[in-house]
Every structure is written in C-alpha cells, then in structure tokens.
Amino acid sequence: MKKASFFLLCSAMMLTACADDQEPSETEQVDEGSNEQVENDQLQGDQDETEVEEETETDHEFDDSSEEEEEKDEKEVEDQSSEKDEADEVIAEEDGLNPEGIIHRAIEAEAQFSSYSLEWQHHDVADDGSVMEAKGFTLIKYMENENGPDYFYREDSGVELEENEASTIYEAQTPEARTLYIEGEDQVTLQTAADEFVPTISIRDLHEFINQSADYQLNYRGIFETEGYEAYHIFAVTENEDTEINLWFDTETGIQVRQNEFFAGYNGTVSRLTMFDSDVELTEADFQISNISQYPVVDER
Known about the structure:
This protein is of the alpha+beta class. The chain is built from three helices and twelve strands; from the N terminus they run ααββββββαββββββ.
C-alpha cells in the first residue's frame, strides 16, 4: 500500500510540473500573435504614410506643372505681344507711318504737282486754347517750268514786321526775275530768279524737320480728321522744348493741311489749309504784281 501511494504521489507531481511547462508556452503564443498584430498595424501605418507622401509629392508635382504651364502661357502671350508690336512697326515703316516717312512722302507729293493754287489761314490761339478769327492769309500760285526757274506768286497778309504790325508781302517769280515788295515801303526789288525761292505747299520747308541738322524730335500721334481731311498727325518739339509744332498731312495726297505752332513766351498760331486746287490753268499774267508799278525798281540781279 505504501508503494502504491508513493507511486500515485509521484505521478501527481509530474502532471503538475508538465502543466506549469505548458502555460508559459501558450502565453508566448499569445504574445507572438499580439506582436504580429502590432507589426501589421505599424506596416499598414507605414503604407498609409507612404501613400500620403506619394499623394503629396504628386500634388506638388502637379502644382509645379501648373505653375510651369502658367509661366509658359504668360511667356507665349508676351512673345506674341512683342511679335505683334514688331510687326506693327514693320507695317508702319512700310506704309510710311513713321514721322520721317510721312514727311518724306509730303515732300515727294509737293514735287509731283505741275501747277496749283492754295490758301492758308492763320489764327491766334487764345489763353483758354480756343482758335480765334483768322489774323492773316497766305495765297500761293505755282507753275512748273521745264526751261528754267519755276513760276510762283505769293501774297502774305497780316505779317508782323518791325515797323508795321499788320502788312502784306508780295513775291513773284518768272524766269527773268524774282520780284519782292513789302507794303509800306517805297520801292520794288528785283532779284535773280532761282528755285531756292519757290515757296512750298507746307508752311515751312519740311526738310528742316528731317535733315541732319534738324533740332526737332518727332513723334507720330495717329490719324485724325481735320479741315475735312483724314490726316496723319506728327508732333515735333525742339531739344530744349521751347518750340512745339503739330503737323497734319492728308493721308490721300500726302500734303500738309494744318499746323499748330507754340513758342515759349508767345501766343500760339494755328494755320489751316482752306483751299487747294491742283493742276490749274495758269499763265504768266498770274505771276505779276500789278499794284506796284508806281514805285521805283531796285535791280539787284
């Protein structure tokens, strides 16, 4: 009986020891499962972060691409605008719409007429800028002469002279002589006939605006309607800005049709072409000053 009891007691102790060895093993399995779950959670989190980073980088790349596209579009617009400006300049130059080209065209236009008659009216400008009644007139008749100096007749009224505030200057030329008489003087002067004395259609000889010694800076202002003409407008100013002159030229014929002059310290003057007739029939009688025959003649030829 004692041996059997001892054997049972030993068996019970062995079972207890085996039970203690198995419990830690199960615990370890549970812990490994938890660790695997944590690792899986961490891996999933890393994947989510990676996806977020990839999405952020993709968005950033998209933003950069959008900015590049915008910059490209802006550059294309600027390039197109620049090309248009350059094209406009080329067209303007080809059409003579730069100041020098317009003036050259006017000079050529004046040379193409074999005969004409015209009238300019000259007006003062009031302090408020309004144009006053005409204070003077310029009448010109011209006829080309193939055999020598050209014919012309000019009458300038309302010209301010040192002794006479209002007077008239008469000039005429035939191939024989240039005749000059100033109203109020007591003599007529004969000078050698030459084309350098022939008046131009324009108020001034237009070469003074474009020759090498020209003191004017020119600016083209556009096309405007004036004196019944569609006209190119040119603004001319001297380097010291003491003189400003506005000139208008007919877009069809090229001739000058208006001029505004402003000098420092003086009232402005507006000149308007009020009559122009080209290719008129003229004879030598149109180039004689008839009302000076009673005055003595001084021949300076």
